[in-house]
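User: I'm new to structure prediction. If I give you an amino acid sequence, what do you actually give back? Let's try with this one:
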Amino acid sequence: PSSTSKSGGENRHAEASSDRVGAGLRGDGTAPRFYKSVSVVPQKDAPGLWGIALDGKTLKTPSKAPLAVPSKALALAVAAEWEWQSGKSIRPFTMPLMALVATAMDQMSKPAIRAQHIHTLLEFFPTDVVLCRHEPSPLADYQAIAHEPVLRWARKELGDVTPTESIFGAEDIPEEVTRAASKRLDAMDAFELTATFNACASAKSLLIGLALVRGAITVEEATRAARAEEDFQTEEWGLVEGGHDVDAADVSVRLRAPRAMMSLLRVVG
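Assistant: Good question. You get back a string of structure tokens that encode the predicted 3D arrangement of the chain. For your 269 residues, that looks like this:
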């Protein structure tokens, strides 16, 4: 995609809402492509923010808000998702960054929705896969190795985080740990909270999601931590093609988009 600045009343008032994609969805999950060119444009009324234009028309979120992100690098990446669609069709499932940005702007920017998402993350903290350790066994040893990078970060940033030998959850998480996690979540802007919530949901772990979004672990480490039990069983009993391998790839893909968005937001210039 190109990076250009548009002028003129016609372009300022024209729009290309991404909601048009949803309205035109076919049975196979694709929609007709309705544009030819994609460009990244600075927001004239909001210095430091970047938007996207399709055929010179301002791209808007499903809620009709002009798409605007505080990073040119992220805007270019989202624009690339639109640019790389096939000549005739749009495949929304291949546009994870666009989905995250739209969610951040349309949903996570609303106080009530934001509060509900934070509540959900903390509510399920006791059943975090990193905290639910199997009883002493080769599987528990495997989990300990896979979860170590996450726990190392958590103990440094949140306090005394200790796994429990129970598959039913950790009932005695220190109050200071929960407070520290809550404080981190409360301090996040809409983009970071969206990335964190999606990473946590994909990994079934608040700790993995936080560590990944903060850049403390890699996507590969996050995937291993999230899938420790499944990977152990695969190594013990063998891989079921079309099952275990697909699940592993799905988790990895779902974790890459939030990490990529946060990395792009940190790019200066």
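You can read the tokens as a compact description of the fold. Here is one thing that stands out. The two ends are 17 Å apart (CA to CA).
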